[in-house]
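A student in our group prepared the protein record below, which I am reviewing. What it holds is a sequence and that sequence's fold in token form. My question to you is simply how this chain folds and whether the tokens agree. Do not assume that whoever made the record got everything right. I have pasted the whole thing underneath without changing anything:
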Amino acid sequence: MNINQNINKLLYALKQKGQIYKINSFQFYSERNNKYSTKYQILKRVFEETYNIQEDKIELIERYKQDYECYSKTDIMKYLAEEYKKGSEADG
């Protein structure tokens, strides 16, 4: 099984627990290494309460906040596995 499949399975398992994540990737040229590198950002869904003055009520707004940043897919997999373990310990 390759690393992308493992990441997708972890994302699905976390989704089942109500934790939604997005993974963004950016390519950039590294002068130090003389090659292109990929940077990954893991964004976690959070809900923020805001007060709507016009309707005089509190609303929940869904936002994605940066939770982790790395440069390899194995680091993504390790981070998601740790997040999955945290949720399991809290339930048990």
Remarks:
- The helical segments are 3-16, 73-91.
- The radius of gyration is 17 Å.
